[in-house]
Amino acid sequence: MKTARELGLIPQGRLEPGPGNAITDVAGVSVGHRSLRGEGLFTGVTAILPHAGDVFRVKPRAAVEVINGFGKSAGLMQVAEIGTIETPIVLTNTFGVAACTEALVRRAISANPAIGRKTSTVNALVCECNDGSINDIQALAVTPADAEAALDAARTGPVEQGAVGAGSGMTAFGFKAGIGTASRRMRVGKRDFTLGTLVLANFGAAGDLVLPDGRRPDPRVPAGPERGSVIVVMATDLPLADRQLQRVARRAGAGLARLGAFWGHGSGDVALCFTTADPVEHEPATAFTTQERLADGHIDIAFRAAADTTQEAVLNALCMAPAMPARNGRIYPCLADWLMENPSP
């Protein structure tokens, strides 16, 4: 399979991608997948680790933007209130949230036996999309062991995309979709930074997709109400305050809108942005800490990177996922196949 960029869908922009064009271009960030296959099963788990250390002890600063809140994720409320994340970020299907939450809690307790006894509890962070059109979601197939496997599989470097991990059974705009990622380099002053995005794409009504060149691919499936979801996870090494992180996360909406999304009533659209700069210690040595912060007058470059990477990551999810039958027998086609059959004039 080829990425959207390899298929000529991504025009020359003002910002260049990182070396891997992935969220893992941000130093220290790693991604792992666990894909489940079986009779009626096509689902899985994807894990994003902000750094290689103990996330509970060294908490990346983060913010969340709920674009449309028809979703069943865990942990977002505390991120919005406190401005940090305490566990890796795990993505799965809607009915897998409890199993993945248990895995994250047990993993954190194993590394920090004082959790819930001598120190605070831990805020497990799990986000979801409904893959029930392809996967038998009532089977409750995702287990804590599957989440552990995704966490253990996390690696820096290339990220597998398409119908893999949590993206296994996802669809978007009437096409097969799943996991996608992209990155952009940012020059601020005399320093270089990166913003990378990973999406779990499962949204958009059939026939609404708009490509960067203006074409509207026809998946040849019946159009229906917009009831999908999308989870957008952004990582950056740019030093941003919590308010700025939320403003950057909000720009995921611009990338989704470029694609033709309008965030329907039944759509769960969530964007999370964290920075690896100046993390927060669980037990700081002093009462006051100093954190570097970007001047607001320079933040537009991060806004642009957020919108661009969200758009490209979704297109990668669509292009890298092969055609697949739904549980009702209908076929979700592959966008890459449509592009080959309908070359740009």
From TrEMBL:
It is an enzyme of class 3 (hydrolase). Keywords: Aminopeptidase, Hydrolase, Plasmid, Protease. Its EC number is 3.4.11.19. GO terms for molecular function: aminopeptidase activity. CDD domains: DmpA. Gene3D superfamilies: L-amino peptidase D-ALA esterase/amidase. PANTHER family: BLR5678 PROTEIN, D-AMINOPEPTIDASE. Belongs to the peptidase S58 family. This is D-aminopeptidase. It comes from Rhizobium meliloti (strain 1021) (Ensifer meliloti).
